[in-house]
From TrEMBL:
This is protein acetyllysine N-acetyltransferase. Zn(2+) binds at C192, C195, C222, C225. GO terms for biological process: DNA repair-dependent chromatin remodeling; regulation of gene expression. One of its GO terms (molecular function) is protein-glutaryllysine deglutarylase activity. It comes from Nematostella vectensis (Starlet sea anemone). Its cofactor is Zn(2+). Its EC number is 2.3.1.286. The keyword NAD applies. It catalyses: N(6)-propanoyl-L-lysyl-[protein] + NAD(+) + H2O = 3''-O-propanoyl-ADP-D-ribose + nicotinamide + L-lysyl-[protein]; N(6)-glutaryl-L-lysyl-[protein] + NAD(+) + H2O = 2''-O-glutaryl-ADP-D-ribose + nicotinamide + L-lysyl-[protein]; N(6)-decanoyl-L-lysyl-[protein] + NAD(+) + H2O = 2''-O-decanoyl-ADP-D-ribose + nicotinamide + L-lysyl-[protein]; N(6)-succinyl-L-lysyl-[protein] + NAD(+) + H2O = 2''-O-succinyl-ADP-D-ribose + nicotinamide + L-lysyl-[protein].
Amino acid sequence: MSSDRELKKLEWRTKFAQASENKDNCRLVKCILKKPPSDRSKRDLEILKELEVLVSQVEERARKQAKAKTKLDEVLDPEEILEDKVCQLVGAIREAKTLAIYTGAGISTAARIPDYRGPNGIWTRLAKGERLGSYNLCDAEPTLSHMSITKLYQEGLVRHVVSQNCDGLHIRSGLPSQALSEVHGNMFTEVCTECEDDRIYYRLFDVTERTAVRRHQTGRFCTDCGSPLRDTIVHFGEKGCLEQPLNWQAAFDVAKIADCILCLGSSLKVLKRYHALWGMNRVKHRRPKLFIVNLQWTPKDESASLKIHARCDNVMKRVMEKLGLEIPEYKRHVKVTAD
C-alpha cells in the first residue's frame, strides 16, 4: 500500500515537473518569436529547432487568437458599396413572397440600449472588468429600424419578425403580437399560466426586478383568477416553454415557407443553433436567401446572399426611401392593464 502511494506521488511530481518545464519553454518560445528574425541569436535558433513542435503549437495558437480578435472588429462599408448593397436588399424585399426578419441587440443601440458583443457591449465591458452602470430601459423608445419594420409589416412586405431582444420595443412600435416571436421573452410583460391561453399583462415598468434563473414569479397576481404572475424571460440554460410572447410555433411556421430572411443587428451566435429557423430541412436550392446587416462577423456570413456592414438605422432609412415608404413617427402612448 505504501509503495503504491509513493509511486503515485512520484508520478504526480513527474507530471508537475513536465508541466512546469512546458510552461517555461512556452514562455521562452514566445519571447524568441517576438524578436525580429535578424535579432535572433544563434542560441535562439537552436532553441526553436529543439522545440520545433512547441513552436508550431505556439504559432497556431497565436493565429487563432488573431483570427478571433478580428471577428470582434466593427467594419463599415464605404458609401458607394453600401449604396449598391442597399439597392440589392431593396430588390430582394420587393421580390420576396415571404420575408422574415430576425432582430438582435444591434437594432436597439440607437435607443441607447447597449448590445452584447460590440466594442462597448455588455459582455465586452464585463470581460475588461469595467462597471456597466445603470440603464433605464423604461424610457427607451423604438428606433427608426423598429418603426420601419412595423411599416413594412403593415404594407404586407414582411410576414413575421423573430426577435432575441427583451426590451419590448417591437411591441411599442405597433407591431402586433401575432406577427412577433420574442424568443427570449419581454421584460415588460408578465403572464398568468393558469388562465386559458395564458393571460398577458403589458407593463410600463420592468417586471423582472424580483425574478431570476428558475425563479420567475414577479410577486403580483392575476386580476382574473388570482394566480401568481410570472415573467417571460428565458435565461441562459433555460428552455422557453411559454406560448406567448415567445411564439415559437409562428417562428417555425414562417421559416418553413420563407424565401427571404433579413437579419438586423444580431451576432447570430445564439440563433444559429435553431436549425428550424433557417430552412435547413429543405432542399438546398429552395432554402431562403439570407441578408445580414451587422458591423461584426457572424457565423452565418458565408451562407449569406449579401452581408451589409452598416448600422441598422442607416440601412433601414435608405431601404424605406427607395421603397417610397414613409417611416411612422413613434408616439408614446400605451394602454396598461390594471394590477
